[in-house]
Every structure is written in C-alpha cells, then in structure tokens.
Specification:
The protein has helices at residues 2-5, 37-45, 75-90, 146-165, 180-185, 200-203, 205-218, 241-250, 266-275, 295-303, 314-318, 322-328; strands at 8-10, 13-15, 19-21, 51-57, 95-99, 118-119, 128-131, 134-137, 142-143, 170-174, 223-227, 257-261, 280-283, 309-312. The chain has 357 residues and is of the alpha/beta class.
Length: 357
Amino acid sequence: MDTLLAPSQLSDFEIKNKLIMAPMSRNRATSDGLATELMATYYGQRASAGIIISEGIQPSVQGQGFMNSPGLHNAQQTESWKQVTRSVHQKGGLIIAQLMHAGRIGHPSLYESAHQSVAPSAIVAKGQTFTPNGMQDYLTPKTLSKKDIQTCIQDFVNAARNAIEAGFDGVEIHAGNGFLLHQFMASNTNTRTDEYGGNIENRNRFAIEVIHAVVNAIGVNKTGIRISPNNPYNDIEEVDTAKLYQNLLSRLPKLAFLHVMEANNREQTKQLRRQWQGPFILNPHKNDSAGVVTAKIAAKVLKDGLADAVCFGALFVANPDLVQRIRVNAPFNELDPSTFYGGDHRGYTDYPTMQSA
C-alpha cells in the first residue's frame, strides 16, 4: 500500500500518489456544453488524486454523444472550464482533459443542434440510448469524407489548445470504448476501402494522425492516449486485437502516458506493458468477477509491475477523500448508481468526507 500512496514522476507530471481518477461521464454540464460551478466543486473535492482525468469532452458540436456533456470547442466553453481547473489547482491537484468524439454513438434528439452522428462507415450501432423521449435506437450515421476527417483532426487540435488555455495540465485522446477513434480501428465499424480502412495500418491511421496533430500543437509531454483493447462496449468487434494494438503502439510518439482500460484480458495487458516504454496507467479489470478497482487490486498491479499508476472509478465517485480513506484504512461511502448521469448535487458533490461525517 505504501507504493500506491507514494509520490512519483509520471512523464513531466509530479504526482502525489499513484491513484488516478478515471474519466467518468456525469452529465452535469449545461445544454450548450458549459462547465458549471457544481462541476468545479466536484473535481476540486477530488484533487487529492495523483491526477484527475476529466469526463469525456467533445471537441466539436458533431462529436457530442450525450445530453449535458461538456465541450471545448468555443471560447465560452473554454472560459467555463477555468473555474474547474482553478478549483483543482488551488488544492494542489492535477487535471487532464479527456477529448472524446462519440462518433456514431448519439441521437439527434439529445442536443439542440439535432445533428446526425458521424462514423467511418454508415453502420448503425446495436442498442439504444437514453433521450428526452425515453430509450431510442441508435440511427445510421453519416460516413465521414476525407475532407470531413481532416476537419475532425483539426477539431481535436483546437480543443487541445483550448484545454491548455483553460488551465488543464494536459489532454488525453480517447481511442477506446467504441467512440470515433475506436470505430475507425475496429473491423466491424470500418468497412472503408480508402487509406482509412481495410488493413490494420489503415484502420489505425486516423488515431495516429489525431495524436500527431495534437502533439504538434501542445507538446508530447502534455498528450496521452486511452485505449480499451478487446472491449465490446458500444457494439465493437476488433477481431485482430493483438496485431491491431501492436501496430498502433509502434507508430505512436513517446507520449506523456498510455492509459489502458482493461477488459478481462490480462495477457493482452502484459503484452502492451512489454511493448510500451513510456508511463503506463491501467484501469484493471482482470476478469468478470474482479468488481470495482480497490486499493488491494491496485497495490497488486503495481507490485507485479503491470503499471506505473492505477485508475479508480466508482470509489472516487462516492469518496471525494478516497486517498485519505485508503491511507487510514477507513470504510467507504455507499455508491448510489441512480445519480450517476445528470441531475443536481445529489450523488455528485454531497458524498461526505470522513471529517464531515
């Protein structure tokens, strides 16, 4: 446990401990994607994490996938995030902006723009999404043209610059969980016949171009990537997982970190760890019965050399003072899943600390 709580160096980041707060959508932004005072309170409460990785932030209007999710694609949104980063920094914390383009995951009824979702290919995702009119099926997305792809890459660049302007310590490019970059990488969502589809090298091309463009804009030491190998979330089938990620990692610059969302595939995680020479963050899910990430699981991951830092999700939601609770071996608050997405302060900023309890 001492290793988990010890300070460390993660690329250029001096972290107070190896507990990373995982990116988790909470849907408390305004309808036009502004960060709020309530969000500033929420993230500030959890500033004792080694690093906070924010919820997914859309880099463009077209990239939005959910109601009340925040953006970083205009001046008003950029300004609104400054209260969040200030809240975290005033308490000695670090916060990374996760840039996430949802791609085909979305529905026109979710947002004022009523835009059609986009994807590498016009293939509808199986499943449904929650909308103001109840659960509705996903709709067929629009295929991105080559010109659209270049616009999308520039959107990531602009959002990354906005993130730095807003006071974030860096950005994480989301290339997992079935969102746009992952949709290009997976064989069942990408049936293109141009240089962005077909073989593994082509399917990884979009992710590589996004990463290099962002690195050129804000620097390699401020840029990380999140992947989720073999994760079927959002109707994804990779088929060639091992070769896909071996190729991806071989073409990435030496980023600030690689963040892996493990999907019950520990051998794949070990392979990635062997290949990647830079800082490695793991959200460990060794098997179906592993449950939420705990201090015991995290300490074992670090002891086994599988990662340099470990992501915690659910425990950070319910315990703003998670680091201190682990340090003194205190009990945890009970999690309320009914308040995960949307709503007000309840189940968001009102979880008690040990001191307030």
